[in-house]
Design brief:
The protein is an alpha/beta fold. It has helices at 5-13, 50-56, 61-65, 78-96, 126-140, 157-171, 209-212, 216-223, 240-252, 276-296, 304-312, 338-353, 374-387, 421-435, 447-460, 472-482; strands spanning 69-73, 102-105, 117-119, 122-123, 176-180, 198-201, 233-236, 257-260, 321-325, 328-332, 360-365, 394-397, 440-443, 464-469. InterPro entries: Folylpolyglutamate_synth, Folylpolyglutamate_synth_euk, Mur-like_cat_sf, Mur_ligase_C_dom_sf, Mur_ligase_cen.
């Protein structure tokens, strides 16, 4: 097969499984310190095989350790915390020379797959992605592998992407690497990291309960699996139950855990800190960056200029993002669980209720998932907006399909819902009309159609404030239309 970017994407796509396994895990992983929790873990945990695959593609534990990793997990704010940490380290590196190269691995992507693997604020190029993908792929599928070896089993989609990130960062000789877990922690593929420099946990909430358990305590247990002996651990303040679990796990993992509250010394008026939860995420990231520099460059410190410039230069697409477009003002946030939807609603209300003139409000929403109840999310969002007396005048339910002509970028991850669009959207429509009979509710089979309709309404009403939320897949498609990549 020709080594091309398009072929790399096609091969990667073959590793995507059709659905999450339902059967409980039935064996013990040599990668895990304890037997697998069969009450929540289903199928083969993502961690299993990662250590062996890294060795097959030529990387030792010491090479992974040499990446100087900051490992971050949580329910809400993982991506933003990773991005703030990256921004602080990058700004510090530009001033002092260390870290010279900073890698960032996150998921999912919004506009293209290469967003998941970044170096110095930029997604890796198509050429680098292609070169390193085929290096990993060909080593993992080499015929000389022992046919009876356990490692003959091939990595799944997210495992392969994590392996590609490790390989890329090692080959590109980054001085620091920030890794976001996929979900969970204890059995997550990224937990092959044995010696992170520092670890962090963002706000915990009820999400991925089929894999992480039905309580905040069980979720806290899984997330704190990234704690490692000798690596300082930090967490934002949590509820008492999960906080106690985190403390116990820190003792078990032989590390020191520090709870972080919002840093009152952060700039008061910076637009990147206008949302309370972002101030908290930034505060956690600052502690992670400070500790990283203290441990890896003891003669240096993250100073006031690093902090100010790091916050000013922060960017994280699709999270509390505002796009001005003529008469329309788009509030774009990839909230997809109840905790984040409440925060998105508060952010939208705060920024629209302060307007001198009463502009039309429009909501564009989409959510299709096996893991989350979309009806619960719609109810949560309606309640949050209603509480502030800020119900939208128009509501548009749509899908994850991006363009009306069916085209999409070859490197854009697209999730096709199993539930037929008309069926679920009719449920959403009935639910919303039951909450607000005055709202004008419509459905669009594509994101492009929903945005076009919102623009038409905005033109008719001499301006509109438009909230786009419910899914990262929706937000990624919306950004491709509102702010297409060159």
């Amino acid at each position: 097969m020709k080594r091309s970017y398009e072929n790399a994407l096609k091969l990667l796509e073959t590793r995507r499984r059709k659905g999450r396994p339902k059967a409980p895990a039935s064996f013990t992983s040599q990668d895990a310190a304890k037997p697998i929790d069969t009450q929540t873990v289903r199928g083969v945990p993502s961690l299993v095989g990662m250590s062996e695959w890294l060795k097959i593609i030529g990387h030792s534990d010491s090479e992974v350790d040499g990446l100087n990793i900051v490992h971050i997990t949580g329910t809400k704010g993982k991506g933003s915390t990773c991005a703030f940490t990256r921004s602080f380290l990058r700004t510090h590196g530009l001033r002092t020379g260390f870290p010279r190269k900073t890698g960032l691995y996150t998921s999912p992507d919004l506009q293209c797959i290469r967003e998941r693997i970044q170096i110095n604020d930029q997604p890796i190029t198509e050429d680098l992605f292609t070169r390193y993908f085929f290096e990993v792929w060909e080593r993992l599928t080499a015929p000389q592998l022992e046919p009876n070896s356990e490692t003959i089993r091939q990595p799944r989609y997210l495992q392969l992407l994590a392996l590609l990130a490790f390989h890329t960062f090692i080959r590109e000789e980054v001085d620091a690497a920030i890794f976001e877990t996929h979900h969970g922690g204890e059995y997550d593929a990224t937990n092959v990291i044995q010696k992170p420099v520092v670890t962090g946990i963002t706000s915990l909430g009820m999400d991925h309960v089929a894999q992480l358990g039905p309580t905040l305590e069980s979720i806290a247990w899984h997330k704190s699996g990234i704690f490692k002996s000798g690596a300082p651990a930090f967490s934002v303040l949590q509820e008492s139950g999960p906080a106690e679990v985190l403390r116990d796990r820190a003792i078990e993992k032989r590390t020191n855990l520090t709870f972080v509250s919002t840093n009152n010394l952060l700039p008061a008026n910076d637009k990147n800190l206008s949302v309370p939860v972002q101030r908290l995420n930034c505060s956690l990231a600052l502690e992670l960056a400070r500790t990283f520099v203290q441990l890896k460059a003891p003669d240096q410190t993250v100073d006031a200029s690093d902090i100010a410039d790091g916050i000013s230069n922060f960017k994280w697409a699709g999270r509390f993002e505002v796009i001005e477009d003529g008469l329309s003002r788009w509030f774009v946030d990839g909230a997809h669980n109840t905790l984040s939807l409440k925060q998105a609603a508060d952010w939208f209300v705060t920024n629209t209720c302060a307007l001198e003139t009463r502009n039309c409000r429009i909501l564009i929403f989409s959510h299709f998932s096996e893991e989350r109840d979309g009806v619960t999310l719609v109810e949560c969002l309606a309640e949050a907006l209603s509480k502030h007396g800020a119900m939208p005048d128009y509501v548009i339910f749509t899908t994850y399909e991006e363009r009306e002509d069916g085209t999409t970028r070859i490197d854009k991850t697209l999730k096709i819902p199993e539930t037929p669009f008309p069926d679920l959207c009719s449920v959403y429509t009935s639910l919303w009309k039951g909450v607000d009979s005055n709202a004008i509710v419509s459905n669009s089979p594509t994101i492009e159609g929903a945005i076009t309709l919102a623009k038409e309404i905005s033109a008719e009403r001499s301006g509109a404030q438009i909230l786009v939320t419910g899914s990262l897949h929706l937000v990624g498609g919306a950004l491709n239309i509102l702010r297409p990549q060159i």
